Please model this.
Amino acid sequence: MDIKEIFSKNFATLRKTGNLTQAEFAEKINYSDKAVSKWERGESLPDLEVTKQIADFFGVTVDYLLTEHSEKVKAKYNIPVKRFLICGLSTGLAWLIATLCFAFIQLLIPTATKTWLSFVIAVPVTMIILLVLTSVWGKTLTNMFITSGLVWSVIATLYIVLLNTLASPPPSLWLLWLIGIPLQVLVILWFTYKKIK
Model:
């Protein structure tokens, strides 16, 4: 098997394991889907810099892309599982920080109230982390749902924090929720535009 065939086989396996279409992958690395299709058919090879970029994207080495593998070796590069673990570790860190803030404030200032708000603030932080990670890996639909979650969690956090920290919250505080409606429409329109583009 020549190097083009080996690369095309490995590349196609990684792309499919990552649940990406050729067009989606091409967009991720700022290349044309026609070039990606040629690589996958074994008609051409990307240059060395792009090969390194592809290897980094999938979390493998350039050597992995250019070497024939048994099915056992391919199984160890289970991209969705790795991505799930990275998301879990990253968001877990946000919740660990929220827990540490809660615990230290309780220990240092025993009279402090409303320390539970650190957990409320952790929700939009979690959404931001997920959005950053899935912007690199995810599909447009996933990003749209996470962005929507970010919009509504920021509004909910503002509402809860203001409701619990202001001496006398204004009766019109509920109007914060109205801001979410045009923001949600903009999110849907933006991701629809991106999908069409």
Notes: The chain has a mean pLDDT of 87. The CA atoms of residues 127 and 149 lie 7 Å apart. The chain is about 75% helix and 0% strand.
